[in-house]
Design goal:
heterodimer, A: 199 residues, mainly alpha, 5 helices, 3% strand, elongated, disordered N terminus, B: 204 residues, alpha+beta, 8-stranded antiparallel β-barrel, 3 helices
Chain lengths: 199, 204
């Protein structure tokens, strides 16, 4: 029988999860706002700054995703509750794989789109250092069509991530309040899993 | 004061037609004597106390910058405007605004294209006195291989062996194709780019 303590995710996994959760929510909110605000004369100036900040934070998420995948491979998460059906297990698994795929693909598409932008604006991560363009794209003669492709992909996948996020939160709340199992608690630092069903 | 400053472009014409013999020699002599008569006081720029600044708007935000590297050959005499002449050569890649996003974009192919044409050159063609210390210089500015006429309004205040020159010109960036591909209608970066110069001079 596993002890209640090992039912928790590791401190590193929790830190990565919540830091990235905050970053991703901020990125989605910024992305939704700035793409419209950049076209309005009165918000253009602020929106331009938000774009630069969005690029910086997105790249941080890209780097964190690689770290997180590495950590997860080395430190498998605690097992799912025994009571879950085969379909629920599959749904949880697919959702998590999709999360990792999008957390890689969305920033990569954003990076590609910035690299293929005819503007050629550099990415200065939080004003500190320059993140290079993807040379293959930055060197293209006619960048516009490539920029358009990556832009659509970035936006489409961001909507997918938002849908996934809603599903993820709803599932966590269902586990906590309806199933009354440890699935949410084990990702919350300092919350005991002892009084809840372990399996 | 007479100085022996012969512009290489003056030599280019007679030099290329030397085969025509006496005519070319005569023309060359004429060019040299013209240069000798025409030269006004030669001034040397004091870089530490001189600057060429530019400004504009990007996405509603005002930016200001300077060129860190430039040089000027100036012969100017308020009493001999016909013999006055100035050539200013600016290292385009040395534009600094204090914002890395701008500073790294400006030298790129669609903006200054500094890799292909590292210098912007302003060359005067005529001076006008506007009364007092005020003057105007007509000239041509070349950037990215494109030329456009520019009028520089300036004040010239001599003080013994030194002088202070302050002036301003209004440039239109599309005259030189600057940012044409990225923003050809000024929806991001203002089309008008005012340039202000403040130059300390000493007699050469």
């Amino acid at each position: 029988m596993t002890s209640p303590r090992t039912q928790h995710y590791s401190a590193v996994a929790m830190t990565l999860h919540w830091a990235m959760a905050a970053a991703i929510i901020a990125l989605l909110a910024a992305g939704l706002w700035m793409t419209d605000a950049i076209r309005q004369p009165e918000t253009k100036n602020v929106a331009f700054r938000v774009y630069q900040w969005h690029k910086s934070l997105g790249l941080i998420v890209l780097v964190l995703t690689f770290m997180r995948i590495g950590w997860r491979l080395a430190n498998p998460p605690p097992p799912l509750p025994d009571g879950m059906t085969g379909f629920e297990r599959l749904a949880a698994h697919v959702t998590h794989v999709a999360f990792y795929a999008l957390m890689l693909a969305i920033p990569l598409a954003g990076w590609a789109m910035v690299s293929a932008s005819p503007f050629g604006l550099p990415t200065i991560v939080f004003g500190l250092f320059e993140w290079p363009h993807i040379p293959m794209l930055a060197g293209l003669e006619d960048k516009k069509p490539y920029e358009a492709i990556f832009k659509s992909a970035h936006e489409f996948m961001a909507w997918g991530l938002l849908a996934l996020l809603v599903l993820h939160v709803a599932a966590a709340l269902k586990h906590h309040f309806i199933n009354r199992d440890t699935v949410l608690a084990r990702m919350l630092p300092g919350v005991r899993t002892r009084n809840r069903k372990i399996g | 004061m007479i100085t022996m400053s012969i512009d290489t472009r003056m030599l280019a014409v007679p030099g290329a037609s030397l085969r025509t013999g006496w005519w070319a020699a005569a023309l060359l002599a004429q060019q040299i004597s013209f240069a000798m008569c025409a030269a006004a006081t030669t001034w040397i720029v004091v870089p530490a106390d001189s600057q060429i600044a530019f400004s504009g708007q990007h996405a509603g935000n005002t930016f200001k910058g300077v060129f860190e590297k430039w040089d000027a050959a100036i012969s100017f005499d308020p009493a001999d405007l016909a013999g006055s002449k100035a050539t200013v050569t600016v290292a385009l890649a040395s534009a600094k605004t204090g914002d890395q996003t701008y500073d790294k974009t400006l030298p790129t192919a669609d903006w200054f294209d500094a890799a292909k044409g590292p210098s912007g050159v302003f060359e005067t063609s005529a001076f006008r006195a506007l009364g007092g210390d005020k003057f105007e210089a007509d000239g041509t500015l070349a950037i990215r291989g494109m030329k456009a006429p520019v009028t520089l309004a300036f004040e010239f205040k001599p003080a013994g062996e030194t002088a202070k020159l302050t002036g301003q010109a209004k440039l239109k960036r599309l005259d030189y194709g600057v940012g044409k591909g990225s923003d050809g209608d000024g929806s991001w970066v203002s089309l008008d780019i005012p340039v202000e110069i403040s130059v300390s001079l000493k007699k050469g």
